[in-house]
Structure formats: structure tokens, C-alpha cells
Specification:
Low-confidence stretches of chain A: none
Largest interface: A-B, 29 and 25 residues
CATH topology of the largest domain in chain A: Rossmann fold
Shape of chain B: globular
Structural class of chain A: alpha/beta
Number of helices of chain A: 11
Helix content of chain A: 25-40%
Shape of chain A: elongated
Structural class of chain B: mainly alpha
CATH architecture of the largest domain in chain A: 3-Layer(aba) Sandwich
Order of helices and strands of chain B: HHHHHHHHHHHH
Oligomer: heterodimer
Number of strands of chain A: 14
Number of domains of chain A: 2
Strand order of the largest sheet of chain A: 6-7-8-3-9-10
CATH class of the largest domain in chain A: Alpha Beta
Order of helices and strands of chain A: EEEHEEHEHHHEHEHEEHEHEEHEH
Low-confidence stretches of chain B: 198-206
Radius of gyration of chain A: 23 Å
Distance between the termini of chain A: 28 Å
Number of helices of chain B: 12
């Protein structure tokens, strides 16, 4: 673990009227990573984010962003973080540009500097043509994009995005996901909450699954999928024209191969590491026509459902 | 904070709400000028400076001072009753508070913007009435009268600030706009109506509670409306002797010559202090509640 942990919570707990919403949560997000906070409705995702931002006081435990305590030093945390709320609101009487300029001013970004930046950001989120329209006339999806722009304006070190793609059309979702992926490349750590697994799988490096305020599982995506299904191993599927028993034998001899099962013209190989190159070489050398080799990927759906069945 | 102040001011200037309030203020000044026109001749026979009588004379219609005392709470409440909760319901509050700004600077910025608007409204009214009045009576104000008017202006703004502080407090406490509007209005009526019937004397209204004028006066002085009325009278009618503990014997031997400026100030100083203190109390509660409040968009 050479990576620096920039967002972390320790035994973070929050209660509302006696109900524990977030329960002794421990969470770690490494620098420049996209972290997906998953969980069903009411799992405590939003509350966790609010506590990390210092907008809500925890009952016990600490939340830290870049080492600053979110409860004690909220201003320092807020200087580093950008936040896209679930239900994002703007001043309806102001234009998109004015709304962004206001946020830039609150962050003490000079007008000259912000002006140029705002143009770029509006372009990036795809609402440049509506920049001078009053936000009151914006559709839900456009507001969501403006919300993304709002986060980008202050160039945060950490961006907290609460359901960033809610209410967007497929094209919009793609754009936002691309933006998120880009953010992590340009030195911003992203924490996003969602219950759309496909999106999380597309952009997140690691995930944490929350259920009833508890962290059920936390880790990088491939680690988790392997842990969940193949006891820490890879599964490689090989499709050939006509599998032969000899081939199975040869494959078994490759170091790292644990098990080979033949089913019709498919071979299921369990390995310790990604051996696709070696396996295809062996298959081709044995003279059997190779149709395809693929590593079995588990969709997050499977992982998610599995943890929820267990938990 | 200046950023929020600037934005709020810009919002106010472009809002219909402000336009209507300005309209109201203009109508009030027009009435006041008309009232002064009716009563100024008679009033000018009394001792004391004439120019400031423009602001306190009226025959059948209330004078400007009375208008202002009635209007300012309305303006203050109308400007601020939705300060915090409208931001909360539109989802902008959590966006702003996730920026590096102190929570109190949000309240302060909004409050100051309201005070600026209120000052402009009151200032414009006083200047309008003063200007037209000057044309009408042709008696220029003395330096002392100008200072009196200026202090009156300041105390009117403080009075308005109290109502704004109160309205902001309710906008922090309640998420519902209707509730946060009705609460300060209810308080205004509760405090304003009894005190506004100060003629003839407050003991008439509260005989059940007390038969001493002193106690009645003390009770009435709980009301910011009454405090402001007193301050107005002392400032603008230098010959006025107040609703103090004046017995018939003292009144009969009293000279009705106007008080000097410093004596007037001495009299109203407690009133102004209490007004400022009341505003501060509203603020203190607002701060404390707001600091600890959950900021959720739902």
C-alpha cells in the first residue's frame, strides 16, 4: 500500500432519533482514486459524505480529509473539496455563468482567472450554449451538468459526488463518467455514491459497499470480484473448435493453472494469475483451432448481490 | 462575506419584492407630504424648530414618523423572512456551505444586504419628504435639525434591523416559508398594536395588570415598536416631554421649550440600546441554531 490515504473515517457514527444511520464506519480512499460508495437506499451514503464535508456533525468517531478533521476544521476541508449534492440547487434567477462565478468568488478565485476557466468548464460539461440562460429554465439533466461544473470550478483535491448521474440521459451519463475518469487522472480524488452498479464499475478503482450504515466490504474492484467468486483466483474461458483430452493435460502442466474443466467446446481454467498469453500459445501449439480466450469478469451486480445475500 | 453581500444586493435590486416595497415607500412619502401640508400651519404656531415638524405633523392621516414606524417592520420582515429557508429548500444552501465560507457570514451577508436596502428606502423617504417640504414651507433646516434627522434615520435603521434579525431567526428555525412569515408578523401585531394605542396612555390598555403608569410604561417598553416611537418623538419633537412619571403638578409647572440635542440624545439612549440589544439577541439565537443545524437538501 504505497498510496497515500487522503479520505478516511474512523469508527464514524451518526444517529438520528435513536436510529443509527452510520455505524462505526471505517473507510479509506487513496489519492487520485475513484472510490464508489455503494449501497441500497438509506444505507448512509449521503450522511457519510455530509460528515466528511463537515456539514453534519458525527455522533462519534472522526472523518478526515487530507489529515484535516472535518468537524473541527471544516473550512480547511472545504477549501480542498468539491461537493455535488444529490438534489443540486442553483439560484434560478441567475444564469449558469453567474452561478459559477459566484462559487468562484466564494473560493476567492479572481474574476480574470475564473472567467477563462468557467468557459472551459461549461464546454467540458456540455452546456456552453446555455451559459447565459437563467438556471430556472434548465432541465434536471442540465442542472446536474451544471452541478458538475460547479465542482470543477474550484479545482478540488477531493470531489464528493452524490449520485452524479441521477436524472441524466445515456449520453449525459457517458459525459459525466468521462469527466469523472478524467478528474482522477488530473490529480483529483473522487468519492462518488451511487446505486447504479454499471457506472460504478466503469469508473471506480475501488468500492465500498454500505449496508445499514456498516461497511460490508471495501477494496479494489478486481480484488473483490476474485475474492467473491473464485477464492482469489482468475477464471479463464477458452473456446476452441474441438477440445481434446490431450489439450487439457497440456494445459494442466502450465505453472499457475489449478484446474481445467471441459464443457463441450469450452474450457474453464482456474489460475493463480492472468495466464491468457501462455494458455493461448499452448492451445495454438497443440494444433487445436482457437476461437477465443477471455478472462471471466464478474459484474459488480454479482458482487453486490452476493454480499447482500450473505449479509 | 462581501461576496454574499454583493450577490444578495444584486438579487434584491432585481427582485419584484423590492420594487413593490419601494413603491410602498413612495406612496407613504406622498401621503406624508400631503399630511404635513394639512397640518404644518397649525403646528408652526407651537414653539420649536419648524422644519422637522414636517415629519411629525398630520391632521387626519398619519404623519411620516407614524408611517415609518408602521412600515419598517413590514419591510424588514418582507426582506428577510425567507433568508435561510428558501436557500435550504432550493438546495443552494448546502452548495454554499460546502464552499470555504463561515456559516455566520451567510447570515451576516444577507442581513447586511437587507440593512442596505432598508437604509436606502428610509433615506429616500426622509429626503423626499424633506425636499418637498422645503419647497412647501420655505424654511431651511438648521444644523441641529439635520443632525436630529440623521439620528432619527439611524434609529429607524436599527429598528428595521431588529425586525430583520427576528425574521432571519424564524427563517433559520422553520423550513416552511409560510410559518417563517407568519411568526414575525404575529409578533409584530402582538407588540405593535397595544403600543400603538399609546394615546391616551398605556395604562388604559393594561389596567388589568397594573394601575401604575410606571409599570405600564415598563411593560410597553418591552415592545420595540414602543421604544422606537419614544425615540422618534424625542428626536423629532424637541418640546415633547415623554410618557414619563409626570404628575399633574409637574406638568403644570413645566416649560414647554424644546430640549437641546444632547438632552434629547440622553433621553433616547436607553431606547436605542435596548433595540440594539434585542437585535443582538435575535442574532445570537440565529447563529447558535444555524451553526448546529443539519444541512441536507431533502
Amino acid at each position: 500500500m504505497g498510496k497515500k490515504i487522503v479520505v478516511e473515517t474512523q469508527e464514524l457514527t451518526k444517529r438520528y432519533d435513536g436510529t443509527t444511520v452510520v455505524d462505526h464506519l471505517n473507510l479509506h480512499v487513496a489519492e487520485n482514486e475513484v472510490f464508489g460508495l455503494l449501497g441500497p437506499n438509506g444505507a448512509g451514503k449521503t450522511t457519510t459524505i455530509l460528515m466528511l464535508l463537515g456539514l453534519t456533525e458525527p455522533a462519534s468517531g472522526t472523518a478526515r480529509v487530507y489529515g484535516f478533521d472535518s468537524t473541527r476544521e471544516p473550512l480547511k476541508v472545504k477549501r480542498l473539496t468539491g461537493y455535488l449534492p444529490e438534489k443540486v440547487g442553483f439560484y434560478d434567477n441567475l444564469t449558469a455563468r453567474e452561478n459559477l462565478r459566484f462559487i468562484a468568488q466564494l473560493n476567492n478565485i479572481g474574476d480574470a482567472e475564473s472567467q477563462h476557466q468557467i468557459e472551459q468548464i461549461l464546454e467540458a460539461v456540455g452546456i456552453a450554449e446555455m451559459a447565459d440562460m437563467a438556471v430556472g429554465k434548465f432541465s434536471r439533466g442540465m442542472k446536474q451538468r451544471l452541478g458538475m461544473a460547479d465542482v470543477l470550478v474550484k479545482k478540488p483535491k477531493v470531489a464528493f459526488l452524490d449520485e452524479p448521474t441521477a436524472g441524466l440521459d445515456p449520453e449525459g451519463i457517458n459525459q459525466i463518467l468521462d469527466l469523472i475518469a478524467n478528474l482522477s487522472k488530473t490529480g483529483t480524488t473522487v468519492v462518488l455514491s451511487s446505486h447504479r452498479l454499471y457506472e460504478v464499475q466503469r469508473v471506480c478503482h475501488s468500492i465500498g459497499i454500505l449496508s445499514k450504515g456498516k461497511m460490508v466490504v471495501e477494496g479494489s474492484l478486481d480484488e473483490l470480484s476474485r475474492e467473491a467468486f473464485a477464492e482469489g483466483r482468475y477464471r479463464i474461458e477458452v473456446e476452441t473448435a474441438e477440445p481434446s483430452p490431450q489439450l487439457v493435460e497440456v494445459l494442466n502442466k502450465i505453472t499457475g493453472v489449478r484446474k481445467v474443466e471441459a464443457k463441450a467446446n469450452q474450457l474453464q481454467i482456474t489460475t493463480d494469475s492472468d495466464l491468457r498469453a501462455e494458455i493461448s500459445k499452448v492451445v495454438v501449439q497443440s494444433g487445436v483451432p482457437l476461437i477465443q480466450v477471455k478472462i471471466q469478469a464478474f459484474s459488480l451486480d454479482d458482487i453486490y448481490m452476493r454480499y447482500f445475500h450473505e449479509g | 462575506m462581501t461576496t454574499i453581500l454583493r450577490k444578495e444586493l444584486a438579487d434584491y435590486f432585481t427582485s419584484i419584492r423590492c420594487f413593490i416595497l419601494f413603491l410602498l415607500v413612495f406612496v407613504a412619502s406622498a401621503f406624508a407630504i400631503y399630511a404635513a401640508r394639512q397640518g404644518i400651519f397649525e403646528a408652526s404656531l407651537d414653539p420649536g424648530p419648524i422644519f422637522i415638524k414636517l415629519f411629525t405633523t398630520g391632521e387626519d392621516i398619519p404623519s411620516l414618523a407614524e408611517f415609518i414606524a408602521l412600515l419598517i417592520p413590514v419591510i424588514g420582515i418582507a426582506l428577510s423572512f425567507d433568508a435561510i429557508n428558501s436557500e435550504r429548500s432550493s438546495g443552494t444552501l448546502n452548495r454554499i456551505l460546502s464552499q470555504p465560507v463561515y456559516r455566520d457570514s451567510v447570515i451576516n451577508g444577507k442581513f447586511l444586504a437587507g440593512v442596505v436596502i432598508l437604509s436606502i428606502m428610509v433615506g429616500v423617504t426622509i429626503l423626499l419628504v424633506g425636499g418637498y417640504g422645503l419647497r412647501m414651507i420655505g424654511v431651511p433646516p438648521t444644523a441641529e435639525e439635520i443632525i436630529r434627522l440623521f439620528i432619527y434615520f439611524i434609529s429607524a435603521v436599527i429598528y428595521g434591523a431588529f425586525w430583520m434579525g427576528l425574521a432571519i431567526l424564524f427563517s433559520v428555525l422553520f423550513r416552511n416559508l409560510a410559518v417563517s412569515l407568519l411568526c414575525p408578523l404575529a409578533i409584530w401585531i402582538l407588540l405593535g398594536i397595544p403600543a400603538s394605542v399609546f394615546n391616551p396612555y398605556i395604562s388604559f390598555i393594561v389596567p388589568a395588570i397594573t394601575d401604575s403608569i410606571g409599570t405600564a410604561l415598563m411593560l410597553a417598553r418591552l415592545s420595540p415598536y414602543f421604544l422606537f416611537q419614544e425615540a422618534t418623538m424625542v428626536l423629532l419633537i424637541p418640546a415633547w416631554r415623554g410618557w414619563g412619571l409626570l404628575t399633574t403638578s409637574t406638568t403644570s409647572s413645566m416649560l414647554l421649550n424644546p430640549l437641546s440635542l444632547d438632552q434629547s440624545l440622553l433621553i433616547i439612549w436607553p431606547q436605542l440600546t435596548v433595540l440594539i440589544a434585542l437585535t443582538a439577541i435575535c442574532f445570537a439565537i440565529s447563529y447558535v441554531v444555524f451553526m448546529r443545524q443539519e444541512i441536507r437538501s431533502t
